[in-house]
Design a protein that fits this description.
Layout lengths: L1 H21 L4 E3 L9 E9 L3 E8 L8 E7 L2 E9 L9 E8 L29 E5 L2
Antiparallel strand pairs: 1-2, 2-5, 3-4, 3-6, 6-7
C-alpha cells in the first residue's frame, strides 16, 4: 500500500508540473531603467523552454536590431534577470528584451544567435515574439 501511495503521489506531482509548464504564459516584464552601469534587467521572465533573454537594439519601428546583450533563462519563472551589455547604450535609446530558445546550435549552453539566424532564435508562440521594449535612462 505504501508503494502505491508513493507512486500515486509522484505521478500527481509530475502531472501537475507538466501541466503548469505547458500552460505557462511566455512573457517579459521590464521597465525603463538606468543602464549606465552596463546592465539591463527584466523584473520577471516566463519561458516555456530553456533559453536566453536577448537584448536587441530597437527604435520606433519596433523591429529587433543587433544583439547587445543576453542572459540565460530556465524554463518556467525567472526573477530579476540581468544581462551585461556588450556595447554602450545611451540614455534615450530603446532596447527590446526578447525570449530566445536554446536550440538548433552546435553547443548546448552557449549563445549562438546572430540576427536572422535559426540557432538559439526567438520563440514565437501563436506567431508572436515574446518581448518587452524599454527606454534606457
Amino acid at each position: 500500500m505504501k508503494l502505491f501511495t508513493t507512486t500515486a503521489l509522484a505521478l500527481t506531482i509530475a502531472a501537475g508540473t507538466a501541466f503548469a509548464a505547458a500552460h505557462s504564459t511566455d512573457m517579459v516584464e521590464a521597465m525603463d531603467q538606468d543602464v549606465s552601469n552596463g546592465v539591463v534587467s527584466a523584473d520577471k521572465v516566463m519561458a516555456s523552454v530553456n533559453g536566453w533573454m536577448v537584448v536587441h537594439r530597437t527604435d520606433a519601428e519596433m523591429k529587433p536590431g543587433p544583439v547587445v546583450g543576453y542572459a540565460p533563462l530556465r524554463a518556467g519563472e525567472n526573477i530579476d534577470v540581468a544581462a551585461i551589455l556588450q556595447e554602450e547604450v545611451k540614455s534615450g535609446e530603446m532596447l527590446m528584451l526578447m525570449v530566445h530558445a536554446e536550440e538548433g546550435g552546435m553547443k548546448m549552453g552557449g549563445f549562438e544567435y546572430t540576427l536572422g539566424a535559426k540557432e538559439d532564435g526567438p520563440i514565437k508562440p501563436d506567431g508572436k515574439l515574446v518581448m518587452a521594449v524599454i527606454t534606457a535612462k
